[in-house]
């Protein structure tokens, strides 16, 4: 098990989708043979975690639309549920 983490990134702005460029919550983590950054859940596969700001509307947590937009920019889709860190 192991991980590689890239931080100090800058997510691009997407004005048409209502998103502004951001660096505070911009990280990517590549997980090898685990599903957690704590390396406490062994698996036979690998995962990519894309860290983005949570979306809160009317005081309630919502699915993160920016994560879906970001994945679509590189021809991919979000396949797992959001995780709280």
Range of helix content: 10-25%
**What's the helix count?**
1
Indicate the mean pLDDT.
83
Low-pLDDT windows of residues: none
Biggest sheet layout: 3 strands, antiparallel
Quaternary arrangement of the chains shown? single chain
The SSE string, one letter per element, is: EEEEEH
How would the global form be characterised? elongated
Present the secondary structure layout:
Blueprint: E1 2-6, E2 27-34, E3 42-51, E4 55-57, E5 60-62, H1 65-73
Give a written overview of the molecule.
A hairpin with a 2-residue loop joins strand 4 and strand 5. The two termini are 19 Å apart. The chain has one helix at 65-73, and strands at 2-6, 27-34, 42-51, 55-57, 60-62. The chain is mainly β.
Short description:
The protein is mainly β. 11% of the residues lie in helices and 34% in strands. It is built from one helix and five strands; from the N terminus they run βββββα.
């Amino acid at each position: 098990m192991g991980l590689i983490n890239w931080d100090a990134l800058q997510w691009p702005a997407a004005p048409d989708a209502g998103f502004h460029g951001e660096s505070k919550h911009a990280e990517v983590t590549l997980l090898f043979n685990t599903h957690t950054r704590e390396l406490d859940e062994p698996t036979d596969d690998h995962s990519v975690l894309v860290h983005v700001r949570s979306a809160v509307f009317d005081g309630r947590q919502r699915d993160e639309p920016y994560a879906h937009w970001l994945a679509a920019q590189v021809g991919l889709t979000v396949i797992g549920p959001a995780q709280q860190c």
